[in-house]
Amino acid sequence: MNEIGKFLIFVGATIILVGVLLLTLEKIPYIGKLPGDILIKKKNFVFYFPLATSIILSILLTLIINLFIRRR
Fold this sequence. Notes:
This protein has 2 domains: 1-28; 31-72. The protein is 60% helix and 11% strand. The protein is mostly helical. A hairpin with a 4-residue loop joins strand 1 (38-41) and strand 2. A two-stranded antiparallel sheet has the order 1-2.
C-alpha cells in the first residue's frame, strides 16, 4: 500500500505541474513557434502540429525523469 500511495502522489504532482505549464505556456516566447512546427492554413481549415516543440519537450522530460530515477 505504501508504494501505491507514493505513486498516486507522484501522479498528482505531475498533473499539477502539467496544469501550471499549460497556464504559463503562452507567456514563454518561441514555444509552439519553432522551426519544424507544421502549420497548414487553407480556406476553412487550419492544421497545426508542433513537431519541433514536441521533440524538445520530450527530451527535457526524459532528462528530468532520468535524474529522478537514477537517484534511487
